[in-house]
Amino acid sequence: MKLYPLFANLDGRRVLVVGGGVVAERKVAPLLAAGAQVIVAAAASTPALRNLAAQGRIELRPDEFEVNWLDAVWLLVAATSDQALNRRLAMLAEQRRIFVNVVDDATLSSFHVPAVVDRAPLTIAISSGGAAPMLARLIRERLEALLDPSLGLLAALAARWRERIRARHPDLAGRRRFYGALFTGPVAALLRRGRSGQAEQATAQALAEPPQMTVGSVVLVGAGPGDPGLLTLRGLRALNEADVILHDRLVSAEVLELARRDAVRIAVGKEAGRHHTVQDDIHRLMLEHARSGKRVVRLKGGDPFVFGRGGEELEFLRRHGIAYEVVPGITAALACAAYAGIPLTHRRHAQAVRLVTAHCRDSLDALDWAAMAQERQTLAVYMGVGELETLQTGLMAHGRAPETPFALIENGSRADQRVITGTLADLVASAARHAVHSPALLILGDVAALAQRLSWFGAEPV
Question: Residue span of the signal peptide, if any (predicted)?
Answer without folding.
Answer: none
